[in-house]
Amino acid sequence: MQNKNSKEHLYEDIGLLLLLLMLSITAVLMMLSQNIVVNIIYLIITMGILIVTYFMGIIPSLLANMVFIAFQTVVMLYEYFGLNHEIQWSLLFWLIMPLLISLTMYLSTRSQIALQKANSDLHAALVERGAFDQQTNLRTMVAYVEDAGVFIETSRRFEIPVSTLIIKIRYFNDLRRMMSDRQLQLLLQIASEVIKSSTRDNDITYILENEDPTWAILLYTNATGGKIAGQRAKDAFEKRIKESPELVNLAISMVVGVSEWNAEEMSNPYDLMNDGIKETQYDV
To answer: How far apart are CA 230 and CA 127, in angstroms?
Structure first.
């Protein structure tokens, strides 16, 4: 796998160098040809072909290049036979350079495009499995239960404390009746961003429910550390609400429940989650 990645990086570097070389050669040939209008037109067409190459792949790019070559050939034949003009040999580089530029661009960007496609496929798979929430870009209850099982097993094997934070909006049902759809969407967005940004790199954030917005965080820490993280999220949320002109006049705050995994009292991730939800009732 490492050798494969090294080869891919090498191909990208070679492709980038060749791309820069082809662009430099094209620029020099454009200056030597001294035909500004045709060069500008052909340059715009070449840029369009490069866009096709990047977003659609090598096959559509080759087809576009073939069409461009055919177009240039027709133009030259018309000028030679129809208008009795001499063939402008200085412009013949446009027959081959766009194709070479497209090939080198594809070589230098194919790994990046493949990675983007893989990320897109992964996102679609997560959404299909119900493990990813499209509105908040957070993982859902399905993923929470799966990941909590991993956290719990790690806790058992290495004796590392595991806790969960359950975060809700205080009096959300009452607030919802007073807020517009835009305000509700903004509130959900701010809360999700704050909760996610308040966690460490190895802490994972989830949205468990959208109807009565409920977030969760899995942490490798004890209940005390969880309370510190929860307070950090509450403080950041309060600051963001005060900075929002649309929400500042509403009495919006978070409630946080912290539950630490206890193997003697809990048997599965749902016990951990439900205990955290129960703890939110005591956050006053």
So the answer is: 28
Which residue carries 């006053």 as its tokens?
284
The CATH classification number of 132-282 equals: 3.30.70.270
CB-side neighbour CA atoms (13 Å) of 191: 29
Crossing angle between the packed helical segments 2-33 and 97-128, to the nearest 10 degrees: 140
CA-to-CA separations, 12 to 25, 109, 130, in angstroms, rounded:
20, 7, 36
Give me the chain's average pLDDT, please.
85
Cβ proximity of 73 and 96 under 8 Å: no
Look at 85 and 225; give whichever has higher pLDDT: 225
Q: Is the pLDDT of residue 151 over 60?
A: yes
Q: What is the pLDDT of residue 1?
A: 45
β-pair type (254-260, 204-209): unpaired
Q: Which residues lie across from 209 on neighbouring strands? A: 214
Q: Cβ(148)–Cβ(218) under 8 Å?
A: yes
- Cβ atoms of 187 and 212 closer than 8 Å: no
- Cβ-contact 217, 165 below 8 angstroms: yes
**Domains of the chain, residue spans:** 2-126, 132-282
First to last CA, the chain: 53
- The answer on pLDDT for 128 being more than 50 is no
Residue partners of 109: CB distance under 8 A and separation at least 6: 12, 15, 54
How are the residues of the chain apportioned to helix, strand and coil, as percentages rounded to the nearest 5?
70, 10, 20
Q: What is the pLDDT of residue 140?
A: 81
Interval 238-261 mean pLDDT: 92
Average pLDDT over residues 214-229: 92
**Phi, psi values for residue 218, rounded to 5°:** -100, 130
- Top-confidence residue, 114 or 175: 175
